[in-house]
Write a structure and sequence with these properties.
By secondary structure, the chain is of the alpha/beta class. It has two domains: about 140 residues, Rossmann fold; about 70 residues, Winged helix-like DNA-binding domain superfamily/Winged helix DNA-binding domain (Arc Repressor Mutant, subunit A), CATH 1.10.10. About 50% of the residues lie in helices and about 10% in strands. It is built from ten helices and five strands, in the order βαβαβαβαβαααααα. A five-stranded parallel sheet has the order 2-1-3-4-5, sandwiched between helices. The longest helix is centred in the C-terminal third of the chain and has 16 residues. The radius of gyration is 18 Å and the shape is elongated.
């Protein structure tokens, strides 16, 4: 069953959230070429996206993970708090192996990497509107194995040990944000940020803050060039 019932003559409304105008424009062109889809609006950050969800009443929201300020995972959670009926598709350059489980837990219903062809994006939109969950075949098998308790390293790569919020703090540290800036961005206290930093150091076995900063910068750079 589709996310929202529509007459045959009506199109499903899509809200596109990405901090790059060229990406929003490209997606708009692709989506508007579909006979049953139309882009009803775009947003470059979480606040504008939340306002768009409320005012435009979209049938589906496409969200990038890397946004200005609050990231895509936190945005998904906030959208879900306001309206759990709005399906969300994540379209991101980031490696799906790290983020698919996180975005699904947050409330998204699909994940497509930007390296994929436009047909994959359109297919994912239609599948999610039909009530399905859409991830790659490889990730589907991995998630099924994890659900069955097989094929998962309990330790795993260091970054995978972090909670969503800890990963966000780690990302912001790598982008050069100071504790006060991180606190303001995430709407928490500086003390809370320091607590997250200590958790990150423990989970990733860093000896000191300098080592944390070094690895955060390296990771942030690798994510940017992925």
């Amino acid at each position: 069953m589709a996310a929202k019932t529509r007459r045959a003559t009506q199109k499903h409304k899509i809200l596109v959230v990405d901090d790059h105008a060229i990406v929003r424009e490209g997606l708009t062109t692709i989506i508007n070429q579909q006979p049953d889809l139309m882009v009803c609006g775009g947003a470059e950050d979480a606040q504008t996206a939340l306002e768009g969800v409320e005012k435009l009443d979209p049938d589906l929201v496409i969200v990038d993970i890397s946004l200005k300020g609050i990231n895509g995972i936190e945005l998904i959670k906030q959208i879900q708090k306001r309206d759990k009926k709005v399906p969300i598709l994540v379209l991101s350059m980031h490696d799906e192996s790290l983020y698919v489980e996180r975005v699904l837990r947050a409330g998204a219903r699909g994940y497509v990497m930007k390296q994929e062809g436009t047909e994959k994006v359109v297919t994912a939109i239609h599948r999610i509107l039909a009530g399905e969950v859409c991830v790659s075949d490889a990730m589907g098998k991995k998630l099924l194995s994890a659900f069955r308790g097989k094929g998962r390293d309990p330790k795993g790569p260091s970054v995978e040990r972090l909670s969503d919020r800890e990963l966000e703090v780690f990302r912001l540290i790598g982008q050069g944000y100071r504790p006060r800036q991180i606190a303001d961005t995430l709407h928490v206290s500086v003390k809370t940020v320091e607590t997250y930093r200590e958790h990150i150091k423990q989970k990733m076995d860093f000896k000191n803050s300098a080592e944390l900063l070094q690895h955060a910068i390296q990771w942030a750079q690798s994510e940017t060039t992925a």
